[in-house]
Amino acid sequence: MDPVTWIMIIQMVLAAASAAKQASVQKKAAKRQAELANKQAREAWEAQEKAEKNRKDQLKKNLAKRRARMGAAGLSSTDGSAGAIIQEMRNDAAEDIYTSYNQTKNNVNASLASAQANLLEQSNAANRKLYQQAGESLGAIGGSFFDDDTTKTTSGTGSGGDKKTMSEKGEEIGGMLGGLMG
Question: Is the pTM of this model over 0.85?
């Protein structure tokens, strides 16, 4: 092989290494985003649990106050309308807890689904680019083995009947195959 072919091979290898490094950086960034989404989800659940505990504590205090007032008025908290008032307070608190839980669950699920989709898309894009670069490099290298003379051309499929060297044609075919692999 002539020196031009070796230079081309070295350039292709360097381009492939650069693409691999860039893909690695993108994957690390996507992983950090996923870890951040996980951390935010944990924090949301912890806040939900804390709010639920506070609501339950407040309900206990309110029930105790209500019972004390009813007792002072000579009413039993288990009889008639007094019992209904106490039960209504419990039902309202349970409904608030249920609503808050569902809102937190939906927010966390949406956040995690978004992070997962973003991670998958970034990973796929990086892989496609890496495969395409590898295909182009391998195609160009393969084409250069068939290219005895760098001025030798084949009729290309480009616009206006462009003339392409065998290595350029190999790079184009390799790029397409690499794109299909990704």
Answer: no
